[in-house]
Design goal:
There is one protein chain. By secondary structure, this protein is an alpha+beta fold. Among the domains are: 185 residues, Multidrug efflux transporter AcrB transmembrane domain (Multidrug efflux transporter AcrB transmembrane fold), CATH 1.20.1640; 100 residues, Alpha-Beta Plaits; 106 residues, 2-Layer Sandwich (Alpha-Beta Plaits). 61% of the residues lie in helices and 8% in strands. It has a 4-stranded antiparallel beta sheet with strand order 2-3-1-4. A 4-stranded antiparallel beta sheet has the order 7-8-6-9, with helices on both faces. The two termini are 37 Å apart. The relative contact order is 0.12.
Length: 731
């Protein structure tokens, strides 16, 4: 099938290339409009959680009491209430249009707070709070953009904080981060591709396909926004993922094409064979990556589920682009693939025999004592993951922004310079189950809530129908362990008789999100593992290899998770990476890294085992086939990993902290997987398995021989009793 695809696209290369060029131009014009098409906001919350259910009740007649926007005014030498500073601010606030605003409170119109709460301890700062009519974060951003300029006051510094401002600032930084990441990564990618292939022509092909897929990803995303709400935060991950995968896949195909040419095949045959072998690897790798992202459908939050939809679509597009455009370009290029050669290390130097290669010798070294090697490497990976035991999970908030972002500055200023932080509000919704709630009992319940550690006050602020609203002010940081304990204690407090209570607010939302992810992540991991197991069986006809692959991939992830906790929660390398540690790790991080890194690990696993399988079908020697397979793929896997590190390194340069977490985590996971796992742990475990690595029960083996996706046409070696693993490893 894959040979036929290569043959067809090579024969119809003219139309394939024309279609790709037209589509790329279209993507550059229409596809880039996706930045204005996101309607899903950030979408971190679980729609079924207690906090979201409380928010739905508050959207009704009971009404919300929240400060969606906090506008901070500052003067270096004037009093906020009596000088011209105060007069200018008051005049400005009086003139702010009220469309879309449910409440605007300040020193001059204090609402439920005392006037003094709006003035800083040194009288040089004051703030105004805004509650919008809508609680949808994207609609709040739209409302903010319409009135933002109306808050400016002459001679006064103005900063914008609160959830609406934070969302607006994250959206703005997202676009600039993508542009900066591409400006940094593309030149480095081109240089590395030239160094890897030692030919400018060969280097340009993966970059051309990668650019095609990256721009095409915008079209895919824009189409998706027509059918479902897509979180505005997915754009960074998806575009960089599309570019990285396309370059990875092109690297596999171009390398195999060159091998076939150098082995004496004509151009048409080389295209056909490269697509039949490396193209098959690309297809199975794409399926593995897509399966990993499909696991995100287990999560109800819009951020994760829309990331899954978008990523599956983009991965599929990357596979199709690699299997259609690239064979056509290879047919056009032909033997010119080696033109403009870069003579690094001597052009005419004879290639070193495979059995003298560094990775061949390393593989044999670990296979001489496979059990000791395996245990030692596993111990190292588990040790790297050990810091994860003390992790404190958080949800995104203003802490994700750079230190000079308005929302982060406002948050710090309110916490340090004011007696009351207007952002630290929670709400308890008391719902009568048999009739209206008793006001006295609600008051008594509020008094009990006020006794919980971390709660500054709890006051009934509204009664409507059967329901009541209690506004709570709290003091601990919303992402701290103290805030988590506070939420649990508040929810454990018995509500009035004949009533239920629902708690909402940032600390409660954080607890709900972390709980939802902790509950769903094992199911996602199980789904990805089981389906990946099935895909690998289709690829190789073995029951033990898929199990080994899943376990080894999880070890890579464990090492990455431990490193992230050590770096971002504990603050190590914060100066080098340019961030402020908050003593926590975003709870969305493990989900995304499992989805991306597990898929990429399968990518390299399929590529490596495909070459091992080729040699095994020829020789039947389980040890030599592993050593040769590793030697033949080591350079391309490490090169692909290096290129991917450069691409996802764009996340590391992101000014948004949870994107930086994803970047660092992926870099660590990819490097560990491509070196320690593929180069050392895989040969050690394959030696332990010996011939059992390719074992399947007789009925399944017969089924796979008939229906499985074989890469080569060589018949499998005759079945033989598998010797003891250690004896085989020492042959």
């Amino acid at each position: 099938m894959f040979a036929a695809i290569g043959k067809f696209t090579a024969r119809r290369r003219k139309w394939v290339v024309i279609a790709a060029v037209v589509f790329t131009l279209f993507a550059g014009v229409w596809g880039t409009g996706v930045f204005g098409s996101f309607t899903g906001g950030a979408g971190f919350d679980d729609p079924a959680s207690e906090s979201v259910q409380a928010d739905k009740v508050l959207d009704g007649p009971l009404g919300r009491e929240s400060n969606d926007l906090i506008v901070l005014y500052e003067s270096k030498n004037k009093n906020a209430t009596v000088d011209s500073f105060g007069a200018a601010v008051r005049a400005t606030l009086d003139d702010v249009p009220r469309a879309g605003i449910a409440r605007l409170d300040s020193f001059w119109h204090p609402g439920t707070q005392s006037p003094g709460a709006y003035v800083s301890k040194d009288n040089r700062q004051t703030y105004a709070t805004v509650q919008f009519t809508s609680d949808d974060d994207q609609k709040q951003v739209e409302a903010l953009e319409k009135i933002k300029d109306d808050f400016a006051a002459d001679g006064v510094t103005v900063r914008y904080g609160g959830v609406a401002a934070m969302t607006d600032q994250v959206n703005t930084l997202t676009g600039s981060d993508i542009a900066r990441a591409e400006m940094l990564s593309v030149p480095i990618l081109l240089i590395l591709l030239v160094l890897i292939f030692r030919s400018a022509i060969a280097a340009l092909l993966p970059l051309a396909v990668g650019s095609f897929v990256a721009l095409g990803s915008f079209v895919v995303l824009r189409v998706l926004t027509m059918f479902t709400e897509i979180s505005s935060t997915v754009i960074n991950v998806i575009t960089i993922l599309g570019l990285g995968l396309a370059i990875d896949y092109a690297l596999f195909l171009v390398n195999r094409f060159r091998e076939e040419l150098h082995a004496g095949a004509d151009v048409d045959t080389a295209v056909e064979r490269a697509t039949a072998t490396a193209g098959r690897t690309v297809a199975f790798s794409g399926i593995a990556v897509a399966i990993s992202f499909a696991g995100l459908a287990f999560f109800p939050s819009r951020f994760l589920s829309s990331m899954g939809y978008a990523a599956v679509a983009v991965v599929a597009f990357a596979v199709v682009g690699s299997l259609t455009l690239l064979p056509a370009l290879l047919r056009y290029t032909g033997h010119g693939i080696d033109k403009w050669r870069i003579p690094l290390g001597g052009r005419n130097r004879a290639p070193k025999p495979e059995k003298e290669g560094r990775w061949y010798r390393t593989a044999h070294a670990v296979m001489r004592k496979p059990l000791i090697s395996s245990l030692a490497i596993v111990a190292v990976l588990v040790g790297l993951g050990a810091p994860l035991l003390g992790v404190n999970w958080a949800r995104p908030g203003e802490w994700v922004l750079p230190s000079d972002a308005d929302a982060k500055v406002v948050s710090k200023t309110l916490a340090s310079d004011f007696g009351t932080n207007p952002a630290q509000i929670m709400t308890s919704v008391v719902q009568g189950t048999t009739g209206p709630v008793d006001r006295a009992e609600v008051g008594s319940y509020a008094a009990e809530l006020a006794k919980v550690d971390g709660v500054a006050s709890a006051t009934p602020t509204a009664f409507e129908g059967n329901d009541a609203r209690i506004t709570l002010r709290y003091t601990p940081d919303a992402m701290s362990d103290a805030a988590q304990s506070m939420v649990h204690d508040l929810r454990a407090t018995a509500p009035p008789s004949g009533a239920d209570a629902l708690l909402t607010g940032m600390p409660a939302s954080r607890v709900d999100i972390v709980g939802m992810i902790g509950e769903r992540l094992p199911w996602m991991a199980l789904f990805v593992a089981v389906v990946s197991f099935f895909v690998l069986f289709l690829a190789f006809g073995s029951l033990l290899l898929p199990l080994k692959s899943v376990i080894l991939n999880l070890l890579s992830l464990l090492a990455a998770f431990g490193a992230i906790k050590w770096i971002f929660q504990d603050g190590h390398l914060s100066g080098l990476l340019g961030f402020e540690p908050i003593g926590a790790v975003d709870a969305n991080f493990p989900v995304l890294v499992v989805a991306i890194a597990f898929g990429l690990a399968m990518d390299y696993e399929v590529f490596l085992l495909s070459r091992v399988r080729e040699e095994w079908e020829v020789s039947g020697d389980p040890v030599e086939s592993v050593a040769l397979g590793i030697q033949r793929t080591a350079k391309i896997i490490t090169s692909a990993a290096l290129l991917l590190v450069v691409v996802v390194g764009g996340f590391m340069a992101s000014s948004i902290l949870f994107m930086k977490m994803i970047g660092v985590g992926l870099v660590i996971a990819v490097l560990v997987d491509a070196t320690i796992v593929r180069g050392l742990l895989v040969p050690a475990t394959m030696a332990l398995l010996g011939k059992w690595a390719w074992w399947a029960p007789a009925p399944l083996a017969r089924w796979w021989s008939k229906y499985g996706f074989r890469e080569s046409s060589a018949p499998p070696p005759p079945p033989a009793p598998a010797p003891a693993p250690r004896t085989e490893a020492l042959r």
